[in-house]
Amino acid sequence: MAVLPIRQVPDPILRQKSKQVRSLNGSIHKLISDMLETMHAAPGVGLAAPQVGVLLRVIVLGIPEQPDIVLINPKIVRKSGERLVNEGCLSLPGYIGQVKRAVSVTVKGRDQNGSEIRIKADELLAQALEHEINHINGILYFDELVGMDKPRKIEPEESRL
Ligand code: NI
Q: How far apart are CA 33 and CA 24, in angstroms?
């Protein structure tokens, strides 16, 4: 396991669309364990593979007091409700901005063993799932700021997605 450097805005890799994972091999398992370690070291509540320079559809989530989640080829299949939240990103430390997120989302994907999983999430986990799935599509939260909002400066330790 290793803590990897997190790519920072404006690294162009953050704007590319990631590819589907076709088979689970040793290099994917190593990527997953490195991503988990990197997320916890940041510390963050979520991380997507492009943030460590790998254009594959892999995300990890680590909401405090909940078990870590690994999702391969995740897809949002249902969204409901809307809420305004302040959001930051480990690829743009020191800033947050206000975005609209779903109240709850249902996501389908595979876990690290290749088994199909379906997660129904709300609150921070729903927000983190939307944020990380955007990352694998090259979308960053400040593309979606509400109204005239601009990323505001905060203490870097608050940038957790
Ligand atoms: Ni992020």
A: 13
